[in-house]
Amino acid sequence: MNGQPSTRARRTPRALRLRDFPGVGIIAVIAVVFLYIPILITTLYAFNDGDSALVWKGFSLRWFGEVAQNANLMNSVWVSLQIAVVATAVATLFSILFALSVERLRARGSAIAMAVLSAPLVIPEIVLAVATLGFIRIIGLAPGMLALMLAHTSFCIPFALMPIRARLKGLGTSYFEAATDLGASSWQVFRRITLPLLVPGIISGAILAFVISLDDFIISNFLSASGATPLPVFLFSLIRRGASPAVNVVATLLLVLAIVVTTITFLQSQRRSKQHA
């Protein structure tokens, strides 16, 4: 009857399955194959004994030794690591301070500040590269290590900021209000509550900024100079002269580094989650 509650048991919504979306499974498989098969091939051919990057001549560790003895290649690795470490440290520190500061702004001011800092995410990188090169010329700074560090720091900030900002927004205000009510100073709240709670976001942001800096080619190509050639620029020059297994070796080593860093970060986050459980 109308107006009376129905006695019929409500059905639990059926969970969606892959078969409910015809064609999605095939597309997903094709996408995975397209993404990961080239990585597997690159890793396999890093152990190639021949002089060509794509012609298999037998298993060998020869090119790992060649890479280790290539002074120019190792110098480019060292340059990239220096730039990435400096850019990551400065961008992460700036992102922490900005995320904490923007929380005190009004909604409109916060949105404007975030839009300004997030601009490098939507501006084409070639535009950023040309603009950065023009700017350093205007201020009298030549391409090289300092210019690369400044540029990498600038475009790494939004990547470091996103996880930190998301983590801070997810915390709410109850922790900080309780600490303030108990008489904690602003510094005590930051050191004992805010910073420890932000650690997962800080780690995620720092890793993201480090990978973005280490991987950048366009801006690095515009700002590199003799003696300050980042690894992506050096690898591109190797490929233009003819692909060799040395390129596969470097790609494999970078892949291993990414896997190690990701694994360590995952294990630390799991350990931290168990401690707070």
TrEMBL record:
One Pfam family name is BPD_transp_1
Alphabetically list the UniProt keywords: Cell inner membrane, Cell membrane, Membrane, Transmembrane, Transmembrane helix, Transport
A GO CC term attached to the entry: plasma membrane
Span of domain ABC transmembrane type-1: 77-265
- Transmembrane helix: present as a keyword of the record? yes
A GO BP entry is: transmembrane transport
**Location (main, coarse):** membrane
- Keyword Plastid in the entry? The reply is no
Spans traversing the lipid bilayer = 21-47, 77-100, 112-139, 145-164, 193-212, 218-239, 246-267
Q: How does it sit in the membrane?
A: Multi-pass membrane protein
Q: In which compartments does the protein localize?
A: Cell inner membrane; Cell membrane
- Which family does the record claim for this protein? Belongs to the binding-protein-dependent transport system permease family. CysTW subfamily.
Task: State the function annotated in the UniProt record.
Answer: Required for the activity of the bacterial periplasmic transport system of putrescine and spermidine.
What this protein is called in its record is Spermidine/putrescine transport system permease protein PotC
